[in-house]
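This entry is listed as follows:

___
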Amino acid sequence: MKVIITGTSGGIGKAIAEKFLLCGHDVVGIDLRGAEISHERYTHFVADIAKDLLPDVDGADILINNAGVQNSGRDIDVNLKGSMRVTQKYAFHDGIKSVLFIASASARTGAEFPEYAASKGGLVSYMKNVALSLARYGATVNSVSPGGVYTSSNDRVVKDADKWKRIMEQTLLPKWAECEEIAEFAYFFTVVNKSMTAQDILIDNGEAAKSLFVW
């Protein structure tokens, strides 16, 4: 199958692209930065999804909206409006099988930078709108909302012993997810899954479920 993935130059997006390539799919990556993947089945385009002309890529079976920024002053333009631009260009055709949005746990909790939380909350709402629109093609449309993930962008808290201790005290399973684990979820929801649609799945090691009971 042909898979379009945004934000493939690192972190979760790169891990997702590598998972699909490993499983024999053709992958098209779109990112602000150059390619970090070298593979005969991988094609890379450099573009800002919020403002640049998006490349012409026909016949995508799967679309994964992963590209995003945080506390940038452009969070809504990139995370929400950019993903909407990408989806409108590549997903609305009768060959589409699945669309996945990489949202965030903050879409549910609101517990991050205001514009970032708003952009991800809007993304989950937009996901449901797309699910309604693409149902006529038999396509599944879902989102995953990761909590903490081990990426270089989170080094400022992962490598700070005091901050990390405070974070782990609020996490039911005292760890974060690896990018490769999120990639496994992405593959399952877009390839294996045939019946779940319009759903947002929280992957946060139980951070939202943590509660303190004192008797």
